[in-house]
Amino acid sequence: MSEKRRDNKNRILRNGESQRKDGRYAFKYTDAMGRMQFVYSWKLEKTDKLPGGKRDSLSLREKEKQIMRDMNDQIVPRGGEMTVLELVQKYILQKTGVRPNTESGYQTVVNILKKEKFGGMRIDRVKISDAKCWLIQLQQNGRSYSSIHSIRGVVRPAFQMAVDDDLIRKNPFEFQLATVIVNDSVTREAITRKQERAFLEFVKNDKHFKRYYEGIYILFKTGLRISEFVGLTLADLDMKNRTINIDHQLQRTSKMEYVIEATKTTSGTRVLPMTDDVYACFEGIIANRQTPKVEPIIGSKWGFLYLDKNGMPMVALHWEHYFQHICQKYNGIYKVQMPKVTPHVCRHTYCSNMAKSGMNPKILQYLMGHSDIGVTLNTYTHIGFDDAKEALKRVANAE
Fold first, then answer.
1. Which of 150, 293, 294, 363 is deepest in the core (most CB within 10 A)?
2. With 80 as the cut, is the pLDDT of residue 319 above it?
């Protein structure tokens, strides 16, 4: 019987194990692809003392257990030699029929990974700490919380795909983002009724911005998404029955292409009643609308309410700029400053005002086009002491 091999501490070495002259241990094995592989460690057992000046890692036998576990569970060795960039590109290839803005977001992530060292890492070597450090680095390089949130929204499911495909055992991006980077995003709060009146009054009386008064008033009084509003056409307005038909939205891609898309959710497709003041605003818009030499047709839609100087439909970005300039001009005149107002703030303000007026949450959910009642109910987080006091007074008067 041949004598069993031993290490320099006289411990018996198992099949595939060996110790080199410098004291480091090695384990040789054949992976699931039939390739010869080696792993190394300065420790045979977990309890061994690490030689001075050497970098700590799992002991050889701990690594052996991992290898055997992966082989038994049919985990593809070495992550299939796939890099993070290659993994994300494979994930994106499976996302067909996505909206242009989503496609643009995917390409942004790919471009980032092409430039980052992280994108070249082999996926089986990416640890949770690596994922966290990468996201922290993105923020330190100037990217906002919301931007990083979107990037992680692509990379995390890509790694989950790798888990499902048995390329890796664990998704390194399964952690709460807010525990890693600072949430520097600005909450878009509703403005008060007093601020809303002051804002609208300012726009109405301003020589330059009064041309947008009716549109801004409608945004405040209907809660329409800006993409829904800019997508409205003459055919969507039933002036006889005083209703607004919302079954699409208008977007402009990063390539400056105009596209008609379905509403954000199926609940976004809805018919809204016009109040008298909203009806009057639409009448004014229709009356003042200049008929262009050539009506722009986007998809099958034409007769858009607002056109730019090039005769094309105004898009969300136009209105974002108008609101920004209005706020700047207002705050340059008055000491009492107007907070940041955007088209989305108009929507949020409408929802808050309806909630504070005591509207049934399910009706408000319909008007807002929310697919989840939770989104509508979150509006109530902006209700304070005065609102509670007023609500109790109404209840008392009703008894």
1. 150
2. yes
